[in-house]
Amino acid sequence: MDPRFAHIRDWIFDLDNCLYPASTGLFALIDERMGAYIQRLLGCDPVEARRVQKSHFHTHGTTLAGLMQEHGVDPRDFLDDVHAIPLDRVSRDERLADALSRLPGRKFVFTNGDAPYARRVLEAIGVHAEFDELHDIHASELKPKPDPHGYRLLCDRFGIDPAHALLADDMVQNLAPAKALGMTTVWVDNGSERGDHGYDHSIVDDRVTNIGEWLETILGDGE
Hints:
Helices cover 44% and strands 11% of the residues. The protein is of the alpha/beta class.
């Protein structure tokens, strides 16, 4: 094990555009469904729906957070709708599965999505069996990353000591609350929209482009 990470007992990973490449384009399908949802909700055209969607994303951190706050949207209805996408774009990742299986300590998924969708994606990647627990948007009491509330709930729920925990996420802004708690942070810099927003070298301990490749590197050859 790379000595920089030898103290880590709990490994926490974001899901979308983190455990699979952003180039997969999976989130683009969700993006399309979000736009269609907003069109139906507001009775507007695609251009206005796109403006509303991105305004909420940039202002509130997620489109859902903005829709809940400003339009009273039922989060379960929204999440069920936008996550009803095919997963044929997602490929199995044997390298990632092998690296995760060799990783000492507990492994968690911490996502702004919901659990049913997250489980489908983890199964498509072929890594669902490697994770101990899943902390979704409902477990965060509908307060998405980077709201610190969800991070505290995650730690309390599973008895995580931030001094011995690591968070890997494709959004720099989502690393800031983890760093404030004392976690080690890894930025998965793979081209996600606004991935570098709020970048500050003091909150990014390591910068990688692929989780599987990075894990192989820090684990060594296993000998």
